[in-house]
TrEMBL record, chains A, B:
<dbReference type="InterPro" id="IPR000847">
    <property type="entry name" value="LysR_HTH_N"/>
</dbReference>
<dbReference type="Pfam" id="PF00126">
    <property type="entry name" value="HTH_1"/>
</dbReference>
<dbReference type="InterPro" id="IPR036390">
    <property type="entry name" value="WH_DNA-bd_sf"/>
</dbReference>
<keyword id="KW-0805">Transcription regulation</keyword>
<keyword id="KW-0010">Activator</keyword>
<keyword id="KW-0238">DNA-binding</keyword>
<dbReference type="InterPro" id="IPR036388">
    <property type="entry name" value="WH-like_DNA-bd_sf"/>
</dbReference>
<comment type="similarity">
    <text>Belongs to the LysR transcriptional regulatory family.</text>
</comment>
<dbReference type="Pfam" id="PF03466">
    <property type="entry name" value="LysR_substrate"/>
</dbReference>
<keyword id="KW-0804">Transcription</keyword>
<dbReference type="InterPro" id="IPR005119">
    <property type="entry name" value="LysR_subst-bd"/>
</dbReference>
<protein>
    <submittedName>
        <fullName>LysR substrate-binding domain-containing protein</fullName>
    </submittedName>
</protein>
<feature type="domain" description="HTH lysR-type">
    <location>
        <begin position="4"/>
        <end position="61"/>
    </location>
</feature>
Amino acid sequence: MINITLKQLRYFEALARHGHFGRAAEACAISQPALSMQIKEMEELLGAPLLERGARQVRLTQFGEVAVERAREILRAADELGDLARASRDRLVGRLRIGVIPTVAPYLLPRVVGNLTASYPELDIHVRETVTPKLIQELGDGQLDTAIVALPVSETSLDETPLFDERFVLVRSAREANAPMPNADSLREMRLLLLEEGHCFRDQALSFCNLPSGPPREVLDASSLSTLVQMVSAGMGVTLIPEMAVPVETRSASVAISRFEAPEPRRTVGMVWRKSSPLAGQLAEIAEIVRQAANNLADQSLGLLPTTR
Amino acid sequence: MINITLKQLRYFEALARHGHFGRAAEACAISQPALSMQIKEMEELLGAPLLERGARQVRLTQFGEVAVERAREILRAADELGDLARASRDRLVGRLRIGVIPTVAPYLLPRVVGNLTASYPELDIHVRETVTPKLIQELGDGQLDTAIVALPVSETSLDETPLFDERFVLVRSAREANAPMPNADSLREMRLLLLEEGHCFRDQALSFCNLPSGPPREVLDASSLSTLVQMVSAGMGVTLIPEMAVPVETRSASVAISRFEAPEPRRTVGMVWRKSSPLAGQLAEIAEIVRQAANNLADQSLGLLPTTR
DNA sequence: TGATTTGATAAGAAAAAATTATGATCAACA
DNA sequence: TGTTGATCATAATTTTTTCTTATCAAATCA
């Protein structure tokens, strides 16, 4: 390991360019002795003379010629490091790893990814879809930059910002479309189909029915909302789905969607990231874009919802 | 121009490798605050965070990942500069530009180049053959590393070392082989063929005859010893050549070679280089190799010379 | 030869980098 | 829920490095 400094390389480069200690020193905005000393130091560190000091002129040695080329490469690389830094701080570029829970991903992401790509053309978006605990862990491990989950998360190391609120709606088979709307308590008596363990949406639904979350219930738990709706369509029971899923999930199923009476079940979906993330600033911007995409989606979904009293 | 230091790059690289300030500092043989401060300084200079300081671990930012790669490249290039220096100081490598006067080059060089290449396999020898004033000028300009010329040169900026002494011998047509040997004065009366202006050998020959050097004489001046000998062989006159040229030049010409009586004309051929040349040490070694090559050559030449009384 | 140019050297001042000591934060744990 | 231990940041001080001014020595130029 050689202990030359970049400063010395700069001085040396200037000296090679000017072939004159005084002028090189002037170009470096230092005094001539300072330059002399640094060059001398550099030669001592390298153990080989960089230049031949003639009486009237300074000439590079053969090694000096090689060295100045190498020095220029090094200096260029160092300057490029500065450029890289500027590029990375001015705008959001490169990879953005975003995690999304499964009860949000299929409905929100198609919009969001399009909008983000429009706003940040140089952004390379990676999506990870899994349940909240895994997302939070991966966020903590630095495998994700941000995650979209149901709030609150209440991790002290994370910042969270709400994106949108959404209602839960009841999904019944089409045949039951005109049956009276069950309330939270009567739901408990019905065959309520739910997602498998780990999904926050399962816990949210159970909580609405004042049921303890935990071990499996009567029927096999589903791994996606699509499956749930298909099961309902087959007459196996009823379920809850988030409002945002309605347009997509009812397209290919003969089910009836009904809203609850107040107090309607609902959840807040938000975005979280490490407080320490250097992307924090840009992530707030991104949250705003996601928020707008969600609002557009909600405006469209609302029209589809029959209001059941 | 960004003012980061190589030291900072080293610290940063260690930090990236260890992912831990304390251990990285230890690896750098400095205290942890010193490392912290340098990393902080580096981030300020770059204007972008290199790492995310979590409570329990340190993680590179995306930019940090890019930066550490670049940093490694820079550090490697700097270390290679050290290697280059070592290579250039330990032994003579690379280009050696050597100038030789035309009355020496064809006879001495074949041997010398072979010996030099044997001693310094990595040496790349460039030969320039021209007259002394040009050689001296090019030496001064740094276009040559050394020159082999007739001594003395007496340039204060140059060091000179003798290589060998050589006699001048008379070349006559074969028909005149048994004619009495002319002395310096009688030579003046004969048709003495000489090299063109600029060749030191011309001046040396003229000086031996006590003639003024200068403007052309009776016949057209030759540009090489070969031409001179061929002209002599054709009966156009007599000439002097250096002893070393005898074996080569008499091979294809029917001429008689005769030595003068004392005081024999002679010259000293030597090697010169800039006093300031960093190769000075190695050039002295090279001079020794040339000296040996010249001695071998002289031993062989001597046998060929008839001693005329 | 004397004046001028040019790089090296010396001594002191200024700046940078290191050290030790201490603080703040946070996770782990009782 | 306070305590502990680990970890990085900050502060004050010392040490080291770098720079400046002044001056020298060598060599060219007139």
